[in-house]
Predict the 3D structure of the following.
Amino acid sequence: MTRLSAIVACYRDGPAIIPMYERLCAIAEEISVELEVVFVNDASPDDAENILRDLAAKDRRVVAVNHSRNFGSQAAFTSGMRVCTGDIVVLMDGDLQDPPEVIRGLYEKWKEGYDVVYGVRVKRDASLFLQASYKIFYRLLRRLSYLDIPCDAGDFSLLDRKVVAALEQFPERDRFLRGLRAYAGFRQIGVPYVRPERMFGRTTNNLFKNIAWARKGILSFSYRPLEWISWIALIVTAAAVSAIFYYLGRYLFVHDAPRGFTTLLLAVLFLGGMQLLCLAIIGDYVGRIFEEVKQRPLYLVKSIFNDPRARD
């Protein structure tokens, strides 16, 4: 029987743990797979650890990985992938915005021979502003990236074991898994689904976090911002040379060279703004290099309930 490992990243998702577990068990029984549920508690400030301890004591199929602090969803998924034992692995958020029932469609596509089956958000229950922002981001990322990253596809996906093994070879710490998933290749396809609102509590995302997430994705899989610096430098230099010849011509032939403090001020402000923009882009890339070369652990595990590696 096929063994399915569902890796659930949990942060402020304590009330959703039991409903998630029950719905995963129902789906596993329906599609006739052996289930393993790996909850990764990314130092959730609620009572998630206590709930997971009790659940793991009742069901040996439940594995709970508790991080020492919050390391983010990408680290949580990576942590779960290094512990799970399934033939196929499903990555999903713990807030039930990734409906477990969609796994049915993901599994059917895997049986057809696909190695990666990702969920495509055809609609999400969110404000029009957020919906438009997400649409713009995914299309901008796809246009700028040197990879063919699917639009409207988040981390929610089913991965064959060989794909999980491939992803474990990536040494980088500043991870953008949906980009790494595309980079890994293999046979991939999307399954459409509607992403509902968070069932419990309030979302932990906001505009600034989403902007930071967009920067992370673009800088991880695109060199275009660095190329823009070259184009900015070329355009500014061409404009400066043109201005020099213009002023020189006025001075030599018309004897009426423009003068004034406003012209000088605008030129200085423009050039200063371009320099700061270029430095900011370079600084983003350098900052990511700095994080990588420190070689710090991607995450730290405080405890594991029902560790599969400790089983006989």
The first strand starts at residue 3 and ends at 10.
